[in-house]
Known about the structure:
The protein has 221 residues and is mainly alpha-helical. The protein has two domains: 24-72, Homeodomain-like (Arc Repressor Mutant, subunit A, Orthogonal Bundle); 80-221, Tetracycline Repressor, domain 2. The chain is built from eleven helices and no strands. It has helices spanning 12-45, 53-59, 64-70, 74-97, 103-122, 126-138, 140-163, 172-182, 184-187, 191-194, 203-214. Helix 4 runs parallel beside helix 7 (140-163) and helix 5 (103-122) runs antiparallel to helix 7 (140-163).
Amino acid sequence: xxxxxxxxxxxxxxxxxxxxxxxxxxxxxxxxxxxxxxxxxxxxxxxxxxxxxxxxxxxxxxxxxxxxxxxxxxxxxxxxxxxxxxxxxxxxxxxxxxxxxxxxxxxxxxxxxxxxxxxxxxxxxxxxxxxxxxxxxxxxxxxxxxxxxxxxxxxxxxxxxxxxxxxxxxxxxxxxxxxxxxxxxxxxxxxxxxxxxxxxxxxxxxxxxxxxxxxxxxxxx
Length: 221
C-alpha cells in the first residue's frame, strides 16, 4: 500500500498575516498605555472631574472617537489608571508574603509597604484623591476586587503564622478582616490625609498593636 504524507506548511502570506496581527496587537497595547499615561497626567494636574476625553485625545493628537476605540468611557480610563496603582501594591505585598521568614515580620512589612505606597501616591494630592472618590462612586466593584485580593495575601500570611505557632489560634479570615479594619486610616487613600490632624498612633505603632493581638501566648500549665 502506498502511503501519502501531506505536509502543511505556513505560506509566506499566512506568516505575514500572523506577524501583522501580532504587530497590531502590540500597537494597540502601546496605544492603550499611552492613553492611560496621558490621562494620569491630566488627573494629577487638573483633576478627574475637569479632565475630558477630548482633552486626552487632543493631547495625543487623535480624535475622541479613537480614544473610545480603546476605552468606552472616562470611567474606564480611570479604572485603568487605578489598576496600575493597585497592581503595583498587590505585586509588592505578594512578594513579601512568600518570603522565607517569620510570619510576624512579613505581616509587618506588608502593612508598612501598603501604607508607604498609598501615602506616596495620594497623601497631600487632592486631585489624585478626587480620582479615588470617582472610582468609589462609579467603579465600586473594581475597588472590592482589589480589597479581596489584598485579603487573600493577608490571610495567607496569618494562616502560615498560625500553622507555625507564631500567631495564636484563630480563624484566618476573621483575623484578616480585623487587621484591615484596624489599619484603615493608614490604608485608605482618602483617610491617610484626612486623619493626619486627628491624634492617634503612628503607622508603626498601630502595626505593633495589631501584631501583639495576633501573637501566640504561652499556654498555662
